[in-house]
Amino acid sequence: MMFVSDFGHLEPVHRRVVLAGFLGWALDAFDFFLLIFVLKDVASTFHASLTAVTVAIFLTLATRPVGALFFGVLSDRYGRRPVLMAVVLSYSVFGFLSAWAPSLGLFFLLRALFGIAMGGEWGAGSSLVMESVPPPARGFVSGILQAGYPSGYLLASLAYAFIYPETGWRGLMMLALLPAFLVLYIRRNIPESPVKSHGSGEFPDFGKILCVHWKTILFATCLMTAFNFLSHGTQDLYPSFLEGIHHLSPREVGGIAVLYNIGAILGGLTLSTLSERIGRRKSILWAAAAALVCTPLWGSSHGLLVIAMAAFLMQFFVQGAWGVVPVYLNEISPPAIRGLFPGLVYQSGNLMASANATIQSSLAVRLGGRLDMALMAVAGFSALLIALLIMLGPERRGEHLGR
User: Fold this and answer.
1) Pair 329, 112: CB distance under 8 Å
2) For 18-46, what is the mean pLDDT?
3) pLDDT tens digits for 255-283?
4) Which tens digit of pLDDT belongs to each residue from 57-88?
5) Span 2-187+204-390: which CATH code?
6) Residue 5 CA to chain centroid, in angstroms?
7) pLDDT tens per residue, range 146-168
8) Distance CA 109, CA 107 (A)
9) Residue 338 belongs to what H/E stretch?
10) What pLDDT is recorded for position 145?
11) CA angle (262 as vertex; 295, 278 as ends), nearest 5
């Protein structure tokens, strides 16, 4: 089994670092996805429309580049480990406070602050992990790291299915405080990246770096924009689609979400591990093409079993492509700004795609309430764009990640 052979490259210290990176991203996603299950409840509480409440998702995604920039610069100057601890603690606190918001305006503010903290996690976490593990294990580890995202979604799905009926939306979102305990684990068990263990304490010359590497930065930002439209376009309004169009119960929606997130985890691990054999670009291309083929079945199927199967397949390939992203971005990153580059281009793509939920909701209204058509249009176009862009990008599998 290729998973077993790749896991064998990891020593105990590597496994602890991978676990910390995985949990940081998983619990980050957990806090984020708690909201998408309760959009209708939030709208009802504050007497607003569903489209109006999707602004909270927009703000969370739109402010993430601010966090990626701020915390990325700190990561390149002071190290990955302290920044990772700071962002985990921050997003936990702001997520928890969202549950206590007395007004929609304050709720929006807290989600924006949550987005800033969330934006700093991925860059610090992915660079810490990729700089720490042996090169032959990077593909497999990339899949583990990115599997944190659907794992967080899966945990949020379980919480929605079993905790929400007892606590309501505010009680559910109080669970956002749980990731704060991860800081204790990082502090006690995780060493600094070997690249940053003797940090210079100086800021990189960003002007010079931009002049030399602007094409790479532009390419990566465009690619991440397409990736984020595909991810959020198949996830953010999908529970509302299942409830509103197919009239499924919260437990049925939660159950399907658990299933398709298992598919997402398996897809990320499979395609990222495969990328160590066939290359990063080819793995992403294959997964994006498969997601495009799955789009009609995913958006127009009927019957609980078929809906669940289509959702599983769709997320297998969507997150299969995503599983290669951490290693791909770290390998094409300019060395001097590896703490900044992956997170910043990732979150800049999030900014470009931050209006996805509002776009899909508005498009559905224009199509006479056909949310299924709106979801398929965005998913299909995004998958096609990823396939076209990745064919134009560089391939740097096995790149040395030192300075």
Assistant:
1) no
2) 90
3) 888 888 889 889 999 999 999 889 999 99
4) 888 888 988 999 899 888 888 888 999 999 99
5) 1.20.1250.20
6) 27
7) 888 888 888 888 898 889 999 99
8) 5
9) none
10) 87
11) 70
- Among 90-104, 196-210, 378-392, whose mean pLDDT is lowest? 196-210
Contacts 24+ apart (CB under 8 A), 277-280: 277/2, 279/395, 279/397, 280/139, 280/324, 280/327, 280/328, 280/331, 280/395, 280/396, 280/397
Q: What is the DSSP secondary-structure string of 122-186?
A: HHHHHHHHHHHS-GGGHHHHHHHHHHHHHHHHHHHHHHHHHTHHHHHHHHHHGGGGGGGGHHHHH
Which residue type does 393 have?
A: G
R_g over Cα of the chain:
20
Cα separation, 342 vs 128, in Å, equals: 11
Element (H, E) at 337: none
User: Three-class SS of residue 35?
Assistant: helix
DSSP character string of 207-245:
HHHHHHHHHHHHHHHHHHHHHHHHHHHTTTTHHHHHHHT
- Please calculate the CA angle 16-17-18 and round it to the nearest 5 degrees: 90
Task: Return the closest-CA partner of residue 57 out of 190, 203, 231, 315.
Answer: 231
Token look-up 């505010």 returns 170
Angle at which helix 325-332 crosses helix 206-233, to 10 degrees, equals: 170
Domain segments of the chain: what residues? 2-187+204-390
Interatomic CA distance for residues 186 and 18, integer angstroms: 11
